[in-house]
Design a protein that fits this description.
Belongs to the FMN-dependent alpha-hydroxy acid dehydrogenase family. The protein is of the alpha/beta class and about 350 residues long. The protein has one domain: TIM Barrel (Alpha-Beta Barrel). It starts with 8 loop residues before the first helix and ends in a 6-residue tail after the last helix.
Length: about 350
C-alpha cells in the first residue's frame, strides 16, 4: 500500500509525482515566476528554531483549540484549493470527511470540483466557503447568496489574485480547464494509465459551482475591479463571519480590522501569485503587533510538518491551514494516504510540544 509509505509531506509529494500526469503534478506543485517564493517560504520556516525545555511533565498533552468560536480537535485545517479532484477522483469528499472527523474547517474553493452544497453536507458543517471576486461582481454575489442558503456561516474572501499569475510549469504543459487535448497531453495521460483510467471512469473534473445556469466562471478572468467598496458591500451582505485571505501588509490588515473583518489569513497563495512576495511567517510578528493579541490570525503557505505548525503558532498565529501536501497524499495513497499524513502531522506536533515542555496550545 502506498499509504504505508507516507511518513512525511515529502514522501507524499515524491509518490504523487510518480502517479500523477506531469501536467497535473506541475499544476499542483508549481509556483509563480522562477518559484523563488516557494523556496523563500521554506527558508523562512526552516530559519525559526525552537528551544527545547527539560524536566517538565508533558505526559498529558492536548492539541484541541478553538477557531472563530468553534471547537477543533487540532490547530490546523484545510485551505481552499481549486480542482482537487485532479489529484484523484473524489478528493474533495475525502477532504470533507477528514474535516468532519477532526472537526476542523475545510475551505471550499470557488473553483472546487464538487458543489458547495455537497461539501458542507459531507463535512457535517465544518466548511467555510472561499470567494473570488471576478468580473463586475454580479456572479460573485450570487455565490455569496448561494453559500448562505447552503448553510455556510463563514466566508473567506481571497484578495491576492487581482490577476492570475504566470506559472511557467502550467504554461509549458498548456494547462487549462477544461483540458485542451493535444499530442503532448495524450502522451502524458497514456504514460499514467492508472490515474487516466480512474479519471475517465469517474468523469472529467469540472468547476462544479458553475454547472448551473447563471453561474459562469472564467479562471483567467480579471479580478482587478475589487476594491475597499467591494469589501464594504460584502460585509453588509454577509451576516456571518468574514475572513480575508492573502494579506501580508500590516496596514492593510489594520484597515480590514476596522472594516469589521472577523479574521485575517496571512498567505502568499503558496507562492503561486507574486514570486517576490514575503513569506507569511516573516510578517506575522509585525501583523500581531499591529492588530493586538486577541485578534484572530491564521496562516498558510509552505507548511510541511508538525514542527512547522508549531513554529507558526509560537510566532503568533492562532490557526494554520494546509494546502497542496494534502493533495499529494491523496494522489499517493487515496483516503488512506490522506489519513496517514494527517496522523503523521499530529504526531510530529505532539512530539515537538513535548520537547518544548508544552501541554496545550
Amino acid at each position: 500500500m502506498f499509504s504505508r509509505r507516507i511518513h512525511t509531506a515529502e514522501d507524499a509529494r515524491r509518490l504523487a509525482k510518480k502517479r500523477l500526469p506531469w501536467m497535473v503534478f506541475d499544476y499542483i506543485d508549481g509556483a509563480a515566476g522562477d518559484e523563488g517564493g516557494a523556496r523563500r517560504n521554506r527558508a523562512a520556516l526552516n530559519g525559526i528554531t525552537l528551544t527545547p525545555r527539560i524536566l517538565k511533565d508533558v505526559s498529558a498533552r492536548t492539541l484541541a483549540t478553538t477557531v472563530l468560536g468553534a471547537q477543533a480537535h487540532v490547530p490546523f485545517g484545510i485551505a481552499p484549493m481549486g480542482m482537487c479532484n485532479l489529484s484523484a477522483p473524489g478528493a474533495d469528499l475525502m477532504l470533507a470527511r477528514l474535516a468532519a472527523r477532526h472537526r476542523v474547517p475545510l475551505g471550499v474553493s470557488t473553483v472546487a470540483s464538487t458543489p458547495m452544497e455537497r461539501m458542507i453536507e459531507v463535512a457535517e458543517g465544518n466548511a467555510w466557503f472561499q470567494l473570488y471576486f471576478s468580473g463586475d461582481g454580479e456572479g460573485t454575489f450570487k455565490l455569496v447568496d448561494r453559500a448562505r442558503a447552503a448553510g455556510y456561516r463563514t466566508l473567506i474572501l481571497t484578495v491576492d489574485v487581482p490577476e492570475v499569475a504566470r506559472r511557467p510549469r502550467e504554461l509549458r504543459h498548456g494547462f487549462q480547464m477544461p483540458f485542451r487535448m493535444g499530442p503532448r497531453q495524450i502522451f502524458d495521460f497514456a504514460m499514467h494509465p492508472r490515474w487516466s483510467l480512474a479519471t475517465l471512469l469517474a468523469g472529467r473534473p469540472e468547476m462544479a459551482n458553475f454547472t448551473m445556469p447563471g453561474f459562469d466562471f472564467d479562471r483567467t478572468e480579471s479580478r482587478a475591479k475589487a476594491n475597499w467598496d467591494t469589501l464594504k458591500d460584502l460585509r453588509a451582505r454577509w451576516p456571518g463571519q468574514l475572513v480575508v485571505k492573502g494579506v501580508l501588509d500590516p496596514q492593510d490588515a489594520k484597515r480590514l480590522q476596522e472594516q469589521g473583518v472577523d479574521a485575517i489569513q496571512l498567505s502568499n497563495h503558496g507562492a503561486r501569485q507574486l514570486s517576490s512576495a514575503p513569506s507569511p511567517i516573516d510578517v506575522l510578528p509585525a501583523m500581531r503587533d499591529t492588530l493586538g493579541g486577541s485578534y484572530p490570525l491564521f496562516l498558510d503557505s509552505g507548511i510541511r510538518s508538525g514542527e512547522d505548525i508549531l513554529r507558526a503558532l509560537l510566532t503568533g498565529a492562532d490557526f494554520v491551514f494546509l494546502g497542496r501536501i494534502l493533495q499529494f497524499a491523496i494522489a499517493a495513497g487515496g483516503e488512506a494516504g490522506l489519513q496517514q499524513l494527517w496522523h503523521g502531522l499530529e504526531a510530529e506536533l505532539r512530539g515537538a510540544m513535548a520537547m518544548l515542555g508544552l501541554t496545550h496550545l
